[in-house]
Amino acid sequence: MSRCFYAAVTVVVADYLISILDNEGATSMSTSQPFALSLARFNGLPSQKEDSMRTYPLFGFYDYFVIALVGVFGGVMGAMFVEASKYLSKVRRSHISNVKRKIMEIVFLSVLATTALAWIPTVEWMSECKPLDMRDGEYFVQLNCDDDQYNDLATLLRQPLPIAINLLYWEDMSAFSAKSCIISGLVVLILLTLTFGASISMGIFIPLLFVGAAWGRSFALTSPEMFDVRTYAIVGSAAALNGVIRVLVSLTVIIMETTNQATFASPLMIVCLTSRWIGNRLVRSQGIYDEILKLRQIPFLEASPPESTQFTVLRAKDIMSKDFVHMQACMRVSDILSTLRTFQQLDFVITDTDGKVLGSISRESLMAILWNKNAWIQNLDEATDESPKNEELRYSDLQFGRLDEVTNDEITQHFKEDVGCENSCIDLLPLMSISPITFGENGSAQRACEFSATNNFVTLWS
């Protein structure tokens, strides 16, 4: 996929360069001829275009090189955001693990965000009062300015982010000062870094679009005669967001669709390529979602095998884990708790007394079974009876969703004072998977990766 994307960028840019070098487009290098308009080949017929030329965000061929630099900045910012988010996630897991502390954190972040968004626009040297002129007063915040004026920083920080993004994309260059754009982008980025990963429902897509639009616009305002503020607001959004999430095709299409700018395919391709490449190389990390999967130890296998499996002779036995913990068909509750606390693997193999594999059971299932005491056999002597069945336990009784955030220490503490842990056991035979998928130990490691990814297997036994 990446190679196809690189090839598409090369072809599109080369095609555009040829189009401006022919006789018909020889004047396209100048800023008087909107280069972006000449690319609108499939953006409607002349009779269908009712808007004037000035409604299009403009860019020249020289902008490709500047846009690549914007992508570099987006990659650097994205790498810093990912590393900061990883660090804060580790701090939260270590120090903010119970409900009380999570609530305190949410209250603190709410007060901090509200105070910052309310107070910062009132600082005189940070904001400017600008004439409203013909602008729609519904979307521009007056705050401490005179009538027929608006506070540009308050407009960016106090309006909902989707409205602020539209203002940054489509307002003329006099609407917001470079200083206000820089400050608003920095405030939103800091608040996003602090709140991302907290126990609240939120996303990073819209805030990062705003940060990129604000900083891209501020960059264009350094030389508004050369750079179109609307163009750099759009590509700045793509750079900031892609520096964090590291995707190519989907983000390019999303920005094109949401801005209704089909002519921006090549600038968005370039900015996404550079921001992704810089972000990956700067700190040798992946996108934020991949890093979260690693931090939470969620198994995830890429669609294509690692390169190390393609160019070397590796067998399944060379990459598989050889220290899997075995569990007995019937175990004490206390022993199961100790195993879960000591070992972090997601699946456990169940064997009989002779070491023969009987099946497997997931960590999630074990925690749900422990939580529901209907599976407990109160008298250990009952475990020696022929095939105890846990008849009182039903699948609907297992509260999987409730235990998603329960840690090993919390479930151990829950049963700490329960005397039944030492005297009770659980028969795992009726609750295990009796047909775990296996793969030959001498099979190709590349084939093992493809087999797991294709069939969505969490664990592949060998």
Jot down its keywords.
462 residues; mainly alpha; 3-stranded antiparallel sheet; 19 helices; 50% helix; 6% strand; flat
- In total, the number of strands is 8
Q: What's the end-to-end separation, in Å? A: 31 Å
In percent, how much strand structure appears in the residues? 5-15%
Q: Main sheet: which strands, in order across?
A: 3-5-6
Counted by DSSP, the helix tally is 19
Q: What Rg is obtained from the alpha carbons, in whole angstroms?
A: 29 Å
Secondary-structure content class: mainly alpha
Low-confidence stretches: 25-33, 39-54, 382-389
Give the mean pLDDT.
Answer: 77
Q: How would a crystallographer describe the biggest sheet?
A: 3 strands, mixed
Could you characterize what this model shows?
Helix content is 50%, strand content 6%. It contains 19 helices and 8 strands. The strands form 3 sheets. It has a 3-stranded mixed sheet. Strands 4-8-7 form a 3-stranded antiparallel sheet. Strands 1-2 form a two-stranded antiparallel ribbon. The radius of gyration is 29 Å and the shape is flat. Mean pLDDT is 77; it is low at 25-33, 39-54 and 382-389.
